[in-house]
Amino acid sequence: MPYVVLVTGASSGFGALTARALADAGHTVYAGMRQTTGRNAPAVADAQAYADQHGVALRAVELDVSGQESVDAAVAQVTAEAGRIDVVVHNAGHMVLGPTESFTPEQIAEIYDTNVLSTQRVNRAVLPQMRGRRDGLLLWVGSSSTYGGTPPYLGPYFGAKAAMDHLAKSYAVELSRFGIDTAIVVPGSFTSGTNHFAHAMHPEDTATAEAYDAFYAGLMDDVGKALAALAPADADVMEVARAIVRIVDTPKGERPFRITIDPADDGSERVSDVADGVRADFYERIGMSDLLTPRTAD
Asked: What is the top EC class of this enzyme, as a single word (predicted)?
């Protein structure tokens, strides 16, 4: 069944790959990106060229997840053009690189805004129509750092992605009786094929960052090299997009709650299996196990 899908942060990386893969699978895809007539105009042109070349329904839409007005306008535009939004892929995110202490509180707030609060803006805009239809899918793109290895100098990003993961888990049970499904896709540390590291935020407090160099000189480069060395030579960032397509194409009630795609195997999948099992056991113990799967009929 073809769906109408809105992908946030789709100008590059996982978002752009996912938008194309979903369009290839026959879905109508809106690739949300900010500054569509400015910095991201080339990404808009690339998306249109891909749609024309492959004969798929892939369209860019102006969507700045940091502002509710922009989010509301994008959801309204997609709904007016396509009639509804069936699937939201929460992909927008921002990486950081540097000693945690050297990021100002304002910078950490910005990271949480992009990686966590943005999902709340989008949800508040799109969930009323999903609740009204008693149908829909929220698909959250997480991070293996939430349950796996956490190398240094990425702290604010890890904290934000973990917060998003917990938000997704809460939404899952609170939306299940509305027939709205939830899935979490957990990519590992793909060091190529995305722009996460290239576009990472660096600390504004450079004096504090430099103080760390006395004991941690070259650490950021070492972390990048170590992560790259863990990944097998055939690691393919497209596996993340393919996993998302598989989840979207799976019938409601049969979708996996979480899928991990981590060629480097930082331990995330093993720990998340335990954590998700504890979660399921807890809901069983309190007599609310029905909340773990979306209601498929009234």
From this structure: oxidoreductase
